[in-house]
Predict the structure.
Amino acid sequence: TIPQSQPLHYTHRQPTTITVVGIVAGLFLIMYDISGIFSSRRIGLMSMADILVAEVCLIVMLIRFEELDIIQQLEREVKELARQNQQVEQQREKMTEFWSNAQQLTELWLYRTVPRLDLYKEVHSQLEDAPKEDLLTNISGANQK
């Protein structure tokens, strides 16, 4: 099972709250600019237009926040899956190395140790069957070969 994606630096409500605060602040700035028009302060239409554009952007972002949030969740999930994939790949490499070493050890046992043990068994059995007076000579002869 894939763990549920967790937000990285914020909860889901913080971006929405920040956006709403931005909209309210923008509305206050627009009202301030409008009051400046009537109070003989010189307010440029460009500053009011800039604030209106910012307000529209914030409202669009607030409306599309759920889509943006889903995209961020999917991006986090992709990163998590990539991390898990890397961990699985590392585990696979470790297992391949382990079983390769185990196979080498098995082959060593099968092709070197077992034949030598069979040879020692045969020598031992030959020495058991030999007369006791020739035992020392036969052991010396077996050790030289």
Q: What stands out?
A: Residues 30 and 140 are 111 Å apart (CA to CA). Residues 65-129 form the longest helix (65 residues).
